[in-house]
Every structure is written in structure tokens, then in C-alpha cells.
Amino acid sequence: MDGFVLLYQPIVDVRTKAVSAMETLIRWHHPTEGVVPPGDFIPLAEETGLIIPIGEWTIQQACRQHERWRRQGFAPIRMAVNISVKELHHPQFAARVEAILAETNMKPSWLELEITETIAIYQETTVLANLRRLKEMGVRLSIDDFGTGYSSLAYLKQLNIDTVKIDRTFIADCPHSHYGSIITSTIISLGHHLGMNVIAEGVEREEQLEYLRKKGCHEAQGYLFRPPMPADEAVGLLARSIERRT
Ligand code: C2E
Ligand code: MG
Ligand code: MG
Ligand code: MG
């Protein structure tokens, strides 16, 4: 996958500020255009079908990076990887993930796949079969940009979703705008009631973090902590494993 690179952005525990996960974010280093953000090439990759090899490469790279960090003695954290709904339409998707996990000695629960809902995906047979298989394996599922897309509440339980990520447009409004704050606190409370992990995206200011802490949001991510960064910088944020290695 020439020209593609992955950056890693930490997701931190709101109370302790310890890093509990890393989200991988893809970049394309174009020979003449420079760094191209995913918003500019993922839709094209989805149209052309290139998203299948790109997506597989991304999951594999993320899992290999996780294995490298474990080998260096760092405690395992969750590795979040964005996937496109197109990937879930591929009948072999779950099987490929299973093979990658085996190759990289990953516990399935270390991998969290982030899905951005733009359509009612849970009505498609292949998509459902892949999601069910992933859940059976123990892979974690996360709904990205929650509150903006096709957010049906029914599938959260139906698909046994582990994590919801509150879209950053709502966080941007916290705590001053009534609307953004109400949506944010409602999603947090929904997460509590359904036993789901809740992550706030795009946290840039201390007052937002304070609001999230008061409302009991579990995790946060954003420029207030760190921007997405290369693996060799991200490693500085990881904690040493206290497990004895044999
Ligand atoms: P996302 O999954 O919601 O990722 C969060 C985006 O917000 C990232 O943009 C990140 O750089 C940015 N961000 C992080 N903290 C802050 C903050 O405090 N303030 C603001 N304003 N932005 C923040 P990025 O890297 O450009 O990615 C955009 C989208 O592209 C992602 O949204 C995700 O849906 C998609 N994407 C990224 N990597 C991949 C990938 O490997 N595969 C697929 N299928 N999609 C990807
Ligand atoms: Mg994401
Ligand atoms: Mg996304
Ligand atoms: Mg998002």
C-alpha cells in the first residue's frame, strides 16, 4: 500500500487521563499534492472498490503496531480502526479480520471497529452476518459520529454495540449551547443505561472536559490531549506493562 500512512490519536479516560485506546487515522502521501486527508480519498476508494485492500491493510497495520508495542513491553490498550460500510458488504470481511488477529496474536477485544452510520446498515444480510461474526469472535464495535448519521437506537442493543462516540459537532457546543449540551448529556446517559462505553470526540477545551466529567462520560479524544501522530511519537504515551513476561 504505497503512499499510505497511519497516524494514532490517543483516547483517554476522563477521570484518570490515562490512555485507554488509540484510534488509527489514515493519510495518503501523494507524490505531488502532499498529505491528503481521508475525507478527500476514502469516498473515491469506496466508489472504486479500492477500499477493500486499503481497509484490510489498515487493520493489518494497526494490529501489527499493537503487537510491536506489546513486544516492547507496553500494556495492551484498545486499538480503534475506522471501517467503511462498504467493507462490511464483503462476505469475507469477518474472516479476514479473524486471520489478521491470529497472525498478530491479538485478543479480539483489543480491536474496536468504528462504523460511521450513513444508511440503515443493519438491514443488509451480509453486513449483519459480518457484524454478528465479529461480535461472536469478541471484536468490539463502536458507532462513530453518533447522533449525526442514521442513528437508530434499536440496533445499539440488537448488534450489541460496545461503544458510542459522540460527534464533535455536539462537543463543540458544550457547555455553552443548550442544544449541544443536552444532546451530549443525553447520549452519555443512554450509554450508562445500556451499559455502553461513551467517548466524546473533538475535545479541545478544558471546560468541555469538565462538563464531560460532571456528566460521567467515560472517555475523551481531541486536540486538548493530543492530535493524531506517528507511531513513534504515540509510543511515548503508552504505559509499561506490569505483567510479568515469560
Ligand atoms: P473520525 O473517525 O470521526 O475521526 C476523527 C477526526 O477528527 C479525525 O480527522 C481527527 O484528526 C479529527 N480530530 C481529532 N481531534 C480533533 C479535535 O479536537 N478537533 C477537531 N476539529 N478535529 C479533531 P481525519 O483524520 O481527517 O479523519 C476524518 C475521517 O475519515 C474520520 O473521522 C473517519 O471517518 C475517516 N477515516 C480516517 N481513517 C480512516 C480509515 O483508515 N478507514 C476509513 N474507512 N475511514 C477513515
Ligand atoms: Mg473514528
Ligand atoms: Mg468515522
Ligand atoms: Mg467521528
From TrEMBL:
Gene3D superfamilies: EAL domain (3.20.20.450)
Transmembrane stretches, start-end: none
Domain (EAL) ranges: 1-242
Xref: InterPro entries: Cyclic-di-GMP_PDE-like, EAL_dom, EAL_sf
UniProt-listed PANTHER family: CYCLIC DI-GMP PHOSPHODIESTERASE PDEF, SIGNALING PROTEIN YKOW
UniProt protein name: Bifunctional diguanylate cyclase/phosphodiesterase
Species: Geobacillus jurassicus
